[in-house]
Amino acid sequence: MAPQFKAENFVKAWNYAVANDQQGASFFEPIKGYKEGVKEMEGLKVVDDKTFTVETTEPTSDFELRLGYSSFFPLPDSAFTDMNAQGEKPVSNGPYKLEKWEHNQAITIVPNENYNGPRKAKNNGVKFTFYPKQDAAYADLLSGNLDVLDAVPDSAFSQFETELNGRSVNQPAAVFQSFTIPQKLEHFSGEEGKLRRQAISMAINREEITDKIFQKTRTPATDFTSPVIDGHSENVNGNEVLKYNPEKAKELWAQADAISPWSGTFSIAYNADGGHQGWVDATANSIKNTLGIEAVGKPYPDFKSLRDEVKKRTIAGAFRTGWQADYPGLNNFLSPMYVTKASSNDGDFSDPEVDRLLREANAADNLTDANKKYNQAQEILFKDLPAIPLWYSNVTGGYSDKVSNVTFNWKSVPAYYQITKK
To answer: Which of 7, 55, 295, 368 has the largest count of CB atoms under 10 Å?
Structure first.
């Protein structure tokens, strides 16, 4: 018997996220009664099986946009009996359900016979295979052993559109790439740190890297968000810090040296299983050649290894960061990353003026007014550079001749339910 999702399944799931300090808990901050670890938020009221109300502490301009994100999904009754079991074999109310999970190898999902929504699966299921290297996945795509690939390796950027012969995808997506320099690192706090971050940013030749490494599958960043999001602007005050300017970079670096002479090696950590070595090495070389310092890439074997050190705050250098939008709003790129103690503020950045502007934007009467405030907050971010914006990613993917109806959505994810086997 399929689980029946009711209004209380939403309310209980949202309260559980906050009570147990889950990573998505900060999304519920506007709700009345929100507090870290609180068991129940008083702003959530169940009216009947199909209705519940949400009371916020102040107007939240993008609240409707947020509701499509997975943090707001319901959980079945069985999850609250055994959350570990839910984690190992999630109960779904979507178009698919989990059939098999081979940890670190593959996940197989099959159509959910109890789903009656508009995204009915047009195939017999999907098997997700985890590859240690993107090159291996691309080779399987070319040989017909893989149907859909959502990330072409940089080694194939120059030829994948030709090799796939009409079965390739190269379109803008809501993906922002950067690297973060933790506030606590020696030489990167206070005024010295601000000068060094600006110098490093201006030492990076984004145009050359996106052209030669990414073969124009990336676009140099002009802000901290994405050009596919409503409200994005290419003309935020202060964004000249993202332009390659070696003379200014050297000048700023010298000013920082006058405060405290530089010592050591500047490193950028990345996960080796994600196809990042090419751009990291090119970025490090651009910094090295411009500023005359040692700058290197620091590979970790996989994403988990890198994130473990980032989350524990034991990482000893800069590290690659970025954001794939949860929902199509500017705020989604800003508040989770740069509000004091936010869930994804991995560099521990804190600025009361940024916090204030983002609160005011969230409380605006409409998105147009909110977007103006979001961009004002970005003006401060360009001075402090809690992350170094690099470029916006296109979704670069492809599919085999065995499938059809393959499309990618605004945030670069294939619409799996639409894919059909030939």
So the answer is: 295
Residue type, 111: P
155-210, pLDDT tens digit by residue? Answer: 899 999 999 999 999 988 899 999 999 989 999 999 999 999 999 999 999 999 99
How far is it, in rounded angstroms, from Cα 351 to Cα 356?
9
Domain 96-171+395-421, second-level architecture: 3-Layer(aba) Sandwich (3.40)
**Which bin fits 20, alpha (ψ -120 to 50), beta or left (φ > 0)?**
alpha
Helices vs. strands in the chain: H and E counts, helices first: 14, 14
Q: Where are the domains of the chain?
A: 7-88, 96-171+395-421, 173-394
Q: pLDDT by residue (tens digit) across 11-60?
A: 999 999 999 999 889 889 889 999 999 999 999 999 999 999 999 998 88
Between CA 266 and CA 253 the distance in angstroms is 13
For residue 38, which phi and psi values (nearest 5 degrees)?
-65, 140
Q: CA-CA distance, 378 to 227, in Å (whole number)? A: 14
Per CATH, which fold does 173-394 belong to?
A: Dipeptide-binding Protein; domain 3 (3.10.105)
Alpha helices in 82-133 (DSSP H): 83-88
Residue 183 sits at the vertex; the CA angle it makes with 179 and 188, to the nearest 5 degrees, is: 90
Residues present in the chain in total: 422
Say if pTM beats, i.e. exceeds, 0.85.
no
Residues 362, 346: Cα–Cα separation, whole Å = 22
Listing DSSP states for 129-142 in one string gives: E--SSHHHHHHHHH
